[in-house]
Amino acid sequence: MNTELKLQAMVDGELDARDMREVEALLAQDARHAALLQELKWTKSAIAGNEVELALPETREFYWSKISRSIEAEARKAAAAAPAERAWWLKLLYPATGLAAMVAVMFVVSGGRTTDGSDSENVPEDVNAVSFRSESEKMSVVYVADENGNFSPVSEEVKNAPEADK
Amino acid sequence: MAKQIDHKAALDVQLVAASQAGDMLAFEELVARHRDKIYARAFSMMRNEEDAIDLSQEAWVKAWQRLKQFQGDSSFATWMTLIVINLCLDQLRRQKRTRAESIEQLDEELGGVERQMPVVATNPSEGLERSELRKRIDKAMNQLSYEHRTVLILHEFEEMEYKQIAKVMNCSIGTVMSRLFYARRRLASLLQSLKKEQQS
Q: B184 to chain A: which residues are within 8 Å by CB?
């Protein structure tokens, strides 16, 4: 910091003790800097508290009306922006929902029955029984194993039989 | 339901709390109380009535939107003043970018000019009526660049320290000190010229 700025900091009370001692020593033997210090003090005291007083050249109602209209307009803008934000989140949900639906379908399919009309077997691991369904014959058969492990049908069900067969 | 208050009799802090809860009438009362000060600060920086009205109104709109952020660390008036000062500085920076710099302004920015000015040996404000002194100061301020005027306003009228001014003006403390030094020296010289003009 140069000497002039130190003089100013002194006037503003922002000079530390070490610099203050240095500036005071300088001022004791330098008339130009002493005069500059005086000028800075005059200027500071002339300005302080002497700001020109101004009043708003508009009535309270007129001035406020523009402010309130702007506040309302900004609020409307913010409200209009809100659905767009929701739509942005929804866009992320679409693929997630699709994926979930696909997983659900695969789970159902892997559960046993096919939907293409072909025959299928379902063998639970903890039950000594086997079920069989034929889509083409519209029938289901359940086989239960005897003590020797031989399967024999115990029930037979025909669904969706044509009206003519009833 | 929000507690009803007597807006005219309420303290600023009560009006701020009510405004934060969405009471527009409380906010209108705050505007009515501080509008002159906020307008005057905008005018002192912009030196233009139309800009000062527009920017002061914009400051009130911003204040309403940011009311939740006001924690009461300073007075409401100080907080509002900072909002309008920042809006004015943004506007002045935009204006500066679009206009050609004068040679004098470039000199001011580069620094050093203030050292060549002769020291004002007599107090130029001595013997002046306060109203006359205010007018002269205002006239002299009008002749400073916005950077020098702003640093004087913040230091002498808003009573900010160098560090606070640097933060508001987004510059270093050294720059604040240089600008303040130049502004004061130039102001002293302008006040002296005005005094001489009147005497002759």
A: 8, 40, 43-44
